[in-house]
Amino acid sequence: MLTTVLTGTQFFLFILGTFTVLYWIIPYRRRWIVFFITVLLFAYFAHMLVPDRSDDLQLYFWFIDRIREGGQSTFNYLVANDNFGWETYFVCKYYYRFFTLLPDSRYDHFLSSVTIFITYGLSLLTIYRASKRFDISRQYTYLGTLFFLATYWFYDSASGIRSSIAIGIVFACAYQQFVEKKHIVLCFIGYFLAAFFHPGGVIALVIVIITFITFNTDGKFFYFLLLFSVALGTRLVNYLGSVTDIGFIQAITERSEKYSQRAGDDSSTAFYVMVVTLILVSSLILYFSRYIRNSDKFSEFSKFYKYSLNTVFFLIGIMMISVVFSRFVRWVLPQIGSIFFMLGMQFQENEIQSKGVSEAMYFSTPVDRFMYRLRPFVIILFVVFIIVYIWYDCNGSSLIWAHFEWEWQEAGYPYIWEAWYGDL
User: What whole-number distance in Å separates Cα of residue 190 and Cα of residue 174?
Assistant: First the structure.
């Protein structure tokens, strides 16, 4: 098995290589097969991971084992003790409870593999639907998808579990509702599940609600407000917490205060990487906006376009709340960047072809000529960014903590959990 000879980072590169080879071999109309295989490979990667004893995932394994041993009484104790906010985010507690029903600790790893199957599955399904709906060519779909695979933080999803699922569900439902306009009831069920899974789902849902409110306006005033989202959101949540004793509101108030206390400068390399990612995605939206808006398919994409702008302004507004900022950059921006690159490149190419290459390059307005001639440099910059990010994945991101069992054994660091949390 490859997981007995490859390290975690090498297996990540193997998945990217497999995706690339299959993508260019399998007929383009069957590209869903490549996406599905890629999801399965990442899920298998997560299943074979052996986390460090200080990682969140190892903590979750320990709790699952204790609940399995102690049964319902132990589970009730943990809920009453409000571990992980389970009393409020009750959907999450049942998600974990499901894995305690599996026979023994050998099945604990299904927690991470199922999580990755959900998060990557929803994300790649969204990218696939966007590619198919808007007739994106093969090369643009490949680059857009590779951007997603490179910038989506795998290990944080596999180990963190909760926020990646909640935010991922909201994003997938937002795309489904705003673009596909199908299965609306299922989307609202998804919003409900996400809101009671993790606070990240609540924050993500607020952006969806703002999109509904602002859709029939030019939105500029709300963009301005989103730049001050931290101050406004904190004040609103604190007010609601002072006038009601509803458990859900109180839990949000507590988490808001916790995030606000952690606000400040973040000088880590990961923070700067995320800021650069935000700048790149914002630049792509700015560059491609005229082509997307001028397309005859813009009416199908307009609500999602608005949602994406709201997300970008929101991220600028919460940049100093690094714990929230990082989660949205890691799990939302990769999908927005992928979709806007695919659509933007395709719609720009369609416009050039409709005018004729010579007409477009030599007889268009000066602004149009400049934008057309900038096109190759945008592609090169995008590809270079993907390559550099893959290098960062393997050398500086949380992916370097992804290890298989043989790596720990070789390092003399056995797979043993030290019970820091005492007996239950």
Answer: 10
